[in-house]
Amino acid sequence: MPYSFHEFSRKKTLERAAEAQLPTEFGDFRLIGYRSLHSDEEFVVIARGRSRRPINT
18: helix, coil or strand? Predict the structure, then answer.
């Protein structure tokens, strides 16, 4: 039976794989790599500053 949207939205779908600093002429950034738990997809986030709250992945 397929998951309902509510059930699926509460399941972990990504895991954090790596993080690195990226200093640039525009400021200091962070590269954060995520890996899908359900496919072979990988994602990269470019972030500046701190997140305001923990992010469920």
Answer: strand
Q: What does the alpha-carbon distance between residue 31 and residue 15 come to, in Å, rounded to a whole number? A: 14
Q: What are phi and psi of 40, to 5 degrees?
A: -90, 15
* Distance in angstroms (rounded) separating the CA atoms of residues 49 and 56: 18
What's 10's DSSP letter? T
Query: What tens digit of pLDDT does each residue of 3-39 get?
Result: 665 555 667 889 999 999 999 999 999 999 999 998 9
Dig out the tokens for 3 from the structure.
Answer: 């998951």
Number of domains forming the structure of the chain:
1
E strands in the chain: 14-24, 27-36, 42-47
Residue 30 falls inside a structural domain:
yes
